[in-house]
Amino acid sequence: MPSVPQERLLLLFDLIGRFNSKVDLNTLLTDIMEAAKTMMDAEASSLFVLDHRTGELVINISTGEASGRIGGFRIPKSQGIAGWVATNEQPVLVPDVTKDARFGGDVPGSGFVTRDLLCVPMKNAQGKLIGVLQAINHVGGGTFPESEIALFQRLADQAAIAIDRERLNREFVEKRKMEQQLNLARDIQTQLWPRSTPDLPGYSLFGNSIPAFEVGGDYYDFIPLNDGCVALLMCDVSGKGVGAALIMASLRATLRTQLSQNPDVDRAIQVVNEALANDTRPTEFVTIFMGVLCPKTHRFTYVNAGHNPPYVLDADGRVTELVPGGPVAGIAHPIEYRSDTISIHPGSLLMMFTDGVTEAESSDGDMYDESRLVDFLHANRTLPLDRLHANLIAEVTAFQNGMPQTDDITVLILRRES
Fold first, then answer.
1. β-strand partners of 118
2. Residue 288: which of 244, 243, 255 has the closest Cα?
3. pLDDT of 117-151, one tens digit each?
4. Which CATH number fits domain 6-172: 3.90.220.20, 2.30.30.100, 3.30.450.40, 3.40.50.150?
5. What would the DSSP string read from start to end of 267-315?
6. Which of 129, 226, 262, 289 is the most exposed, fewest CB within 10 Å of its CB?
7. Hey, what CATH class is 193-416 in?
């Protein structure tokens, strides 16, 4: 940097110190503008931030007579003196803008007249362009001294580093807020899952859900009913995150209320579908499988609203898919759903699952699919249900061969022991 009077260097250091003390981006931008005016004895200043998505330069803030009237004004990176500086990443001193073909005129409606200017690129610590800084109209006439271009460039680069730091701080705060929201959603979801398994004479029962991310969209439940019966539920809510968790909470409340008052799966699915269709957006829907098992009669009445058909594997090896029902819940109403009733025989195994199981992908792009699941059930049908579940997760994980889990894996398993 060319020789600069000591008082100018002291001013530069003082201004940089102010940048480093700011914790708010808007305040920092304002201070950068004021610093540019002070440092360069300018009537006005402007700061263009590069929008990397569009390639445009955006005036975030300005000082001088046009302050407050041109904020947000955009220009293509290829236009104007600021665009030239951004494209070439070199400073430029223009003693008379009327004689420079690159000058595109003042911002319409600003009421400001530019005579001369000094424009420099703003680069962060990695040397990446983040914007352009301008000092406009040297106070007292004349133009900005060439000897102070390097000084102004140093100010701009330190300002860029400060802006980057504040952006990172803001991103950190936003990330923390998102983490708090995800923790809240995870807490909501955890409260939705059953805390205990009902005692069903002559039956074993097991359920588990493994979210792919912090918060999943799957829901399973056991709801004890009158006369020793129990409702078994498996749902998959479209979407993820807080929104899906809240839909699950509402869905759980509606289903539990309906089934506890009247264990009629036909009526319950009609009420749930109508509530979802009325209270959610068209893109929000739920696949639902619900059934009511009465251990005294071994009768299982169910309805399937667009969910993966569960499998019933009988002791003789025969496999039945539980398909009857209708479309996914929440897309329209009224919709007629058809229920069905089957008998659960001694040794029969009922497996309810979400598509996180059958659509798990291998490194070759293959899916685990339903046929592998059926083969697995044949091979593991007599194991204790918690062991059966552990073996299934291990098999799916081995099948993925290092590929990450991309969807929630939720299962509910019932077996008649006697």
1. 93, 135
2. 255
3. 999 998 988 889 989 999 999 997 788 999 889 88
4. 3.30.450.40
5. HHHHHHHHHHHHHS-TT--EEEEEEEEETTTTEEEEEEEBPPPPEEE-T
6. 226
7. alpha beta
